[in-house]
Amino acid sequence: MNQTKPYTIGLDLxxxxxxxxxxxxxxNIIASSTMKTGGFATADDYADAAIKCLMxxxxxxxxxxxxxxxGAGAPNGNYLNGCIEFAPNLPWAHNSKVPLAKMxxxxxGGLPVHLTNDANAAALGEMTYxxxxxxxxxxxxxxxxxxGSGIVINGEMVYGCDxxxxxxxxxxxxxxxxxxxxCGRKGCLETYCSATGVARTAKEIVSxxxxxxxxRDIELDKITSLDVSIAAGKGDEVAKEIYEFTGRxxxxxxxxxxxxxxxxxxxxxxxxTKAGDLLFxxxxxxxxxxxxxxxxxxxxxxxxxLNGAGAAVLGAAAVR
Length: 320
Known about the structure:
By secondary structure, the protein is of the alpha/beta class. The chain is built from nine helices and 13 strands. The protein has helices at residues 43-60, 100-107, 118-129, 190-193, 195-208, 225-233, 237-261, 277-290, 311-317; strands spanning 7-13, 17-24, 29-36, 67-74, 77-78, 83-85, 97-98, 113-117, 138-143, 147-153, 156-157, 265-269, 300-303. The strands form three sheets. Strands 3-2-1-4-8 form a five-stranded mixed beta sheet. It has a five-stranded mixed beta sheet with strand order 11-10-9-12-13. Helix 5 (195-208) crosses helix 7. The longest helix has 25 residues, at 237-261.
């Protein structure tokens, strides 16, 4: 612990909002600020606006001399080169590699700045502040608009030769008649087991069957995963089957993931974890039914220990 520089900066750079936090070494968020991520013509415009948003909270804790480093989690963030690479949901970064770490460092007087993707940041956050403290081998799976993952093996984050390894959301789970994925392939886990995928499953059932369900009370194109969760909580059989289907696919995928790293735990992060046993019971059941015998009963299934609005900021602050 650096006693003269007791704080780090965490940046959760999302497609809609960018949230900054000043974090102490115990994982407490001392100050925070938020701005919109979009609406900028260039990456330089975004970086300039971000510094204006950040500096007031830096001054609150005594200025840059009190900051050890800055960590950022961002879509398509590459730890090895500090760039956001062709991020489809960032208008100022979707057609190029943006050297965001350097851009922030230059604007912060040479402060060390580290960047990775949001799922890797979540994994680092769990290892530093959350339920993975003390673990050397685990997989964090983020369940949001997409499915992301951060893989830690022997205490080290897996980045691969180019910084882009660990995209388990694009593991193909349906090769025949698989759903089209934004990555260009078909049948990816993300197209079924993300919040978007759950809504997609619901819309397919409502539009192709006459089965009674509370989901018919909602306009078809407006059904969300939250609607499915609420309906399931009220005992709706169709909604419960949607979560059964989603959990089964996730459990089968985790059984495959175990073969390459034998994790101590699968840790789930994101809004969909609020579905609770509706999702986790079928995950665990499918995992035990499909995992190789040598791995049975070894992995824990845990929910993130960084619940709350600041979870992603804490994860970003752990990137170094």
